[in-house]
Amino acid sequence: MQRQNIIGLTLCCLIFLTGFLFKGNLTFYFNIASFMIVAGGSAAAALLSFQLERMAIVYRVVKASYSYQLKSEEDIVDILIDLSIKSRMDGILSLQKDEHETSILFLRRALGCLVDNYEPQQIRDILNTEMYFFKLRREDSERALRTIADFCPAFGIVGSVAGLIPMLAGIDDPTIILKTVPLALTSILYGLILANFFFIPFAANLRERTNQELLLQKIIMEGIIAIESELNPTVLRTKLLSFLTPSARKSDLVPLAKIKERFHIKEDDRPGPAAF
Q1: Which is higher by pLDDT, 267 or 158?
Q2: Which pTM does this prediction carry?
Q3: pLDDT tens digits, one per residue of 230-253
């Protein structure tokens, strides 16, 4: 995670916990039995729903999404421009040494197709297939997280019912009521917190990261095919900048003075208000 995200997350967590302190002691909201019912039940349901290998993949994907920072679109464009210049100067085979230097697996796969002299259409088909199944795998992981998020409130209700039953059975005994009411209420609280504070944000972050990675892969694919076609690096840069937001490529805009000079536009040529 970036430093700004960590600072923001820490502040929001402090505000969240402070809200519990305004009306009482924070220890009132801790109940081991409730947590065991919600966490244990949700984990058991998840293992019944998904294979253990799938859960391990989900864990690794979520961990990587918060610990590994992707390269920006601007960085990818710069890398491809450098590769294009190398290609025009030394030939396509000069890119082979770059195949093992980059940490971007998709770029390495694309460069491998390039140095093996695949046809442009073959490169596009291979990389599109790679992107398609990459998206499917990420959607499976996201679906698993959202399914677990649905389990948590449900087992919170289970814990609540587990607390209400002995409470009703001992309605004449105040000590039983005092022991079972915290179980009934905190179970729902834990279920909602686990679902909305952890698993749903994990799934949303995974979708956001997947969309960003797909954009980077699209830029790489178009750049590699253009390099194979020996497109002029300046033209390639103009093409790849189309993938970026307007603010990211603001410096690439042609000055208005140059446009006026190219089209022979004078200040007096502009139509006045009466023309409209």
Answers
A1: 158
A2: 0.78
A3: 888 888 888 888 887 777 665 566
DSSP string, 110-177: HHHHHHTT--HHHHHHHHHHHHHHHHHHHHHHHHHHHHHHHHHHHHHHHHHHHHHHHHHHTTT-HHHH
Under a CB-based contact definition with an 8 Å cutoff, are residues 184 and 160 in contact?
yes
Give the whole-angstrom CA distance, residue 121 versus residue 129: 12
123: buried, middle or exposed (CB in 10 Å: 19+, 13-18, 0-12)?
Answer: buried
From CA 256, how far away is CA 211, in angstroms rounded? 34
- Sequence ranges of the domains in the chain: 30-264
Do 183 and 34 meet the contact criterion of CB atoms below 8 Å apart? Answer: yes
User: Which residue has 């998709």 as its token pair?
Assistant: 106
For residues 101-114, one letter each, b for 16 or more C-beta atoms within 10 angstroms of the residue's C-beta and e for the rest, the string is: eeebebbebbbbbb
